[in-house]
């Protein structure tokens, strides 16, 4: 199916939602079925606007933006909104705002509690996922590029951390807490950034993304999303995943 064909078909019959394995936002259960806060939110909105079938497709972070932009699927689970990304895709209204945190080896011998603190620790190495906003946040805080290791997949970063090839892995604080609970490895600890030490800023916001040509679906989605965000049902469902 060509990109043009995919974008022009009747999305009310079927929508393909792409997600990555990043709990609590998106994950595959042992049975193989997808779940997570972002997937549950998307399915709620899509059902309400009359979509008859939703296919959830597991992919990698590096594929999310270029492949939705090219029409290989209809919608991505939320990711942080940046001006650069907005040049490629169209974002929905924001659905969450999240601070970063570190995943470290238990004991945190280098006392890493912020990007700024890691920058000051001259021998500390940071792991990030290629293309994610944590890379830019670390650079803004003064972490030199030579001390930032990039990985394509989260598991690669976790393996590097456990093997001592990096000292911290940066992601959202909520995501790291959920990851530690999910894998149950006592050698890993999630650290929320000390916001009194970090450079003050509002937490960045995340939103669903669509191909710019897919305006009809995006507009319908946004209308219902605005009605649903903050409702008692929305709050109740998101609290189960640790989102306040």
Give a verbal description of the structure:
It contains ten helices and 13 strands. The chain has 244 residues and is an alpha/beta fold. Strand 9, helix 6 (133-140) and strand 10 (148-151) form a beta-alpha-beta unit. It is globular, with a radius of gyration of 18 Å. Mean pLDDT is 93; it is low at 1-5.
Strand and helix order = HEEEHEHEHEEEHEHEHEHEEHH
Major sheet description: 6 strands, mixed
Shape: globular
Structural class: alpha/beta
Arithmetic mean pLDDT: 93
Percent strand equals: 15-25%
Radius of gyration: 18 Å
**Fraction of residues in helix:** 25-40%
- N→C terminal distance: 40 Å
What's the number of extended β-strand segments?
A: 13
Number of helices: 10
Unreliable segments of 5+ consecutive residues: 1-5
Key terms:
244 residues; alpha/beta; six-stranded mixed β-sheet; five-stranded mixed β-sheet; 10 helices; disordered N terminus
Task: Put the structure in a nutshell.
The protein is an alpha/beta fold and 244 residues long. The protein has helices at residues 3-8, 37-48, 61-69, 83-86, 115-120, 133-140, 154-162, 173-183, 215-228, 232-239, and strands spanning 15-19, 27-28, 34-35, 54-58, 75-80, 90-91, 96-97, 100-105, 126-129, 148-151, 168-172, 188-192, 205-210. The protein has ten helices and 13 strands.
Give the SSE layout:
Elements: H1 3-8, E1 15-19, E2 27-28, E3 34-35, H2 37-48, E4 54-58, H3 61-69, E5 75-80, H4 83-86, E6 90-91, E7 96-97, E8 100-105, H5 115-120, E9 126-129, H6 133-140, E10 148-151, H7 154-162, E11 168-172, H8 173-183, E12 188-192, E13 205-210, H9 215-228, H10 232-239
Parallel strand pairs: 1-4, 1-5, 9-10, 9-11
Antiparallel strand pairs: 2-3, 5-13, 6-13, 7-13, 8-11, 8-12
